[in-house]
Amino acid sequence: MTVKELIEELDSLGVSFNKKSRKAELLELLLAQTKGKSKKPANKADSEEAAPAAKSSEVPKSAGKATGKKEISADSGYAIIRTGGKQYQVSAGSLVRVEKIEGNIGDTVELQDVLAVFDGANTKIGQPTVDGAVVTARIVAQDKAKKVLVFKKKRRKGYRVKRGHRQMYTALEISGISA
Q1: Which of 7, 22, 143, 176 has the fewest CB atoms within 10 Å, measured from its CB?
Q2: DSSP-H helix ranges across the chain
Q3: What's 23's DSSP letter?
Q4: What is the pLDDT of residues 1-30, one digit of tens each?
Q5: By C-alpha distance, which of 9, 41, 7 is closest to 26?
Q6: Residue 81: CB partners within 8 Å, gap ≥ 6?
Q7: How far is the C-alpha of 76 from the C-alpha of 97, rounded, in Å?
Q8: Residue 77: how many CA atoms within 13 Å on its side-chain side?
Q9: What percent of the residues of the chain are helix, what percent strand, and what percent coil, each to the nearest 5?
Q10: Is 97 helix (H, G, I), strand (E, B) or coil?
Q11: pTM of the predicted model, to two decimals?
Q12: Per the omega criterion (within 30 degrees of 0), is the bond before 52 cis?
């Protein structure tokens, strides 16, 4: 699958982006990881950057065994995390856009604010968070969202103000969920 075919597939899913930006570079990176598999984005928060993502094999098999934590695979489970004042549903291998998190591209971050963990048979719901649950993710991109224009006007007074705002965001690839 070429980058052009991937862009056409994302357009058919309703994902919009500027082809001349760094997102094309992100698409090429994701294309190398996907090996042609495609999946519809899980929610609106990651729909703009949610190119198809393969199961992550970067997490070592013994990542959760030292502390007795259980690793949750992408097939059987997912977690609800809170970051930047918003909640996101994530599973291992998924790509999600969140409010800006400090760090460089390629850095690994641990999200400690896990509200719930769902595994095929087990469900853990925190009050407010699940004790000991950690979602590990890799920073894939640090970018700005589309520009939002704000136009103020007072009729008959000659008052017109046009302002633009581009919110910073971080694209994360979820490496693993341990509970």
Answers
A1: 22
A2: 3-12, 23-34
A3: H
A4: 666 776 677 677 666 555 555 566 666 666
A5: 7
A6: 87, 88, 90, 111, 113, 114, 115, 135
A7: 22
A8: 20
A9: 15, 35, 50
A10: strand
A11: 0.57
A12: no
